[in-house]
Amino acid sequence: MRKTADKDLPLFWAIVPIVLLMGMLSYNVLKIYGDDATSGANQFALLFMGFVAAIIGFRRGVTLETMLETVYKNIKTTSGAILILLLVGSLAGTWLLSGVVPTMIYYGLQILNPTIFLAVAVIVSSIISLVTGSSWGTTATIGIALIGIGKGLNINEGMIAGAVISGAYFGDKISPMSDTTNLASAMAKIDLFRHIRYMLNTTGPSITITIVLFIILGFFQSPSSQMESLSILDGIKDTFYISPVLLIVPIVVIVLIVKKVQPLVALLIGTVLGAIFAIIFQSAVIKSMLGVETLSIHDAYKGVMDAIIADIQIKTDNATLNELFSSGGMKGMLGTIWLIISAMVFGGVMEAIGALSSISNALLRAAKGDFGVFFSTTITCIFFNGTVSDQYLAIVVPGKMYADAFEKQGLAPENLSRTLEDSGTVTSVLFPWNTGGAYNSKVLTVDTVQYLPFAFFNLISPLMTLIFAAFKIRIKRLVKK
């Protein structure tokens, strides 16, 4: 039999594990491990604070069975993300070995310059994400190439990742094919396109400000010397066979995503195509990597399997390219998967002992007036992204909680759906232990703390929805019958 506490968990005990966790995570990052904190220290912090929360639960009469059942349920919800992470690791490896990524970098370096690159990265990522409806698919395809191009132009990798993520989440947020867009409209029980049209009121200014900020940053970028650019281009061409034919692989994957093929299937096809193109076009690279003179079937198989599952490093005569042309394959994703599972353990225990509902109820009671409802919803969405570590729960739970509150205030349901997107969808990527943050930092090979200050769209969106609420801008009210 499941057993829960007889009364709601007091607010003080609900926030104790969160405060201790924030302290431990901050100490790991700022005082000891820095960027390496996600290699194990933060995972243990999440597990340990899950244990602390469990002790509080035991004292309140919550059984171990109840807590484990919730943890298992939470981990189950991330199984799709975990499989996608593994396939993204394999795709990145074969796309490097096949010359797909080097080809995109090679042509990108000749077209773009540092002054316009960041703004272009936002726009390109926005278009791809809008068409595909997937921020994750965008960062895993064009995002990887943009990181390479930006590094070749000597642009700070945190800025590059911030631009890619800003564009990817803008497109995802307003795309009718996006799962979060459909989920938010469903939670508010309104038509999808009605939700998208109303959301443009805050999303339009947010992405405009984002692009302007990246244009300004572009003026402060130092252009690479012609000698340095030529050195990078020569290094790529001397190592890989470069041809527009190789761009068939990413085009196929993007088309599959647009056609709403399951992401797992699209990524698997992209991995297999990358492996085939590697054997056909980059036999010299495989021979050099394995240290063999002739490429047998056995060697070709081993070369592509190494790219799929393990660390590979493509050596060139250029130090910048040597750093760029490396991949961890599936193996490189295991640390991120460990982080996600640890976050699900902490979130599951907190949910089981009633800590999350206690904090949410306190916020709901504090909601006074129109602005109070908007503010409480925004804070709750961000809170769930930081504790439950799942973007979908950060939309679903607040959506259920605040639906009646919006109606009682006479606010039309699209206010709720817009707020869920402005604060739930986009802020998941700002937490290193959230599935969104863990995924994107690993795929783009940029730590969350590095891109966070430059993820302008994701930072501005929740502020924009609060500004609109505070000044009563475009706030639609229920029509009294």
Entry summary:
With 481 residues, the protein is mostly helical.
Question: Helix tally?
Answer: 24
- What are the segments in which pLDDT stays under 50 over at least 5 consecutive residues? none
The strand count comes to: 2
Q: Please give the order of strands in the largest beta sheet.
A: 1-2
Tell me the major beta sheet: 2 strands, antiparallel
Radius of gyration equals 23 Å
Order of helices and strands: HHHHHHHHHHHHHHHEHEHHHHHHHH
Helix content: over 70%
> Beta-strand percentage?
under 5%
Summed over residues and divided by their number, the pLDDT gives a mean of 89
Amino-to-carboxy terminus distance = 48 Å
What is the number of domains?
2
Q: What class would the helix/strand composition place it in?
A: mainly alpha
Shape: globular
